[in-house]
Amino acid sequence: MTKTSSTISKIQFPNAVLLPIVVEELEKGKTVTLNLRGYSMRPFLENDRDKALLKKAVNPRVGDPVLAEVSPRHYVLHRIIAIDGDKVTLRGDGNLGEEHCLLSDVKAEVIGFYRKGRTTLDRIDGRKWRIYSWFWTRLYPFRRYLLAFYRRIWLRIFKPKIE
Questions:
Q1: How far apart are CA 87 and CA 137, in angstroms?
Q2: Which of 123, 125, 137, 157 is the right S-S partner for 112, CB 3.0 to 4.6 Å?
Q3: Residue 10: which residues within 8 A CB-CB, separation 6 or more?
Q4: Residue 163 pLDDT
Q5: DSSP string, 128-145
Q6: Res. 18: pLDDT tops 90
Q7: Contacts of 124 (CB under 8 A, 6+ apart)
Q8: Residue 1's pLDDT is what?
Q9: pTM score of the predicted model
Q10: Which string of b and e fits 82-106 if b means at least 16 CB within 10 Å?
């Protein structure tokens, strides 16, 4: 009997290379599942652990998490905190600062997230996400302290599982 083994390789591309291709696919009407990289949506979404299911942005609203191009070839997946005409203000749940773009620079809306290695989608129109969003956005004045606690204490006790 011959024993064969296979290995799976993980290849990462810089966002400036990968995300324009993702946007092209979204423009064709496809949905895309994107592995999340970065810490701007902490504490509920983790780097290299969670995934986002995206669709082409049609009618983004305040409170929606979106993929936006904030400068040429620099994309962020953040929540919309304000829309004033065609100007959009974004903030990552794990960020204190804001980023700005035009409504036309919002390339994708999030349908939902695959969190903690699960295969079930946490939809953003679901009750769980709406409740989380309502509380977290209202905690903005205290976010600095909550995020510091999360980084300095919580993560040391409960390390996130990276798949």
A1: 20
A2: 123
A3: none
A4: 52
A5: HHHHHHHHHHHTGGGHHH
A6: no
A7: 64, 65, 110, 111, 112, 113, 130, 133
A8: 55
A9: 0.83
A10: eeeeeebbbbbbbbeeebebeeebb
